[in-house]
Amino acid sequence: MTGLLKTLVSLALSMAMLAPQFATAAGTASPQNAQVYFIWPGDGTVIQGGKFWLRMGLRNMGVAPKGVDFPNVGHHHLIIDAELPAMDQPIPSDRNHLHFGAGETEARIELPPGKHTLQLLLGDRDHRPHDPPVVSKKITITVR
Q1: Taking a C-beta distance cutoff of 8 angstroms, is the pair 9, 1 a contact?
Q2: Which domains does the chain have, with CATH numbers?
């Protein structure tokens, strides 16, 4: 083999060995035109009393419970007063990252008085963000 051919073969073998690492880091594929959004509340909404019904929408994909392995489906996660999590890791589950793994599209939420930011992130069967991520616009609400 020539030097160039040996280099190309070596490079191809190296890439083949690394491919599984990259495949597991990326989430389940999502369509480029997928959109997750808030039906209610809207940006700037003032909520009296702290309890409200959150309504979540999704376009060009379907909603399915966690563990369901079909193309172009996922389930909602609500990010409260936090930045988006790492896109190559499972979405955390804590008071700032609410999981709707049963496939819910609405939920009763309670927040303390004050300003809050909300953002939706669609997760795949394993609570990982899709590739590309399906993320809503971040909104701000006020609880009185």
Answers
A1: yes
A2: 28-143 (2.60.40.10)
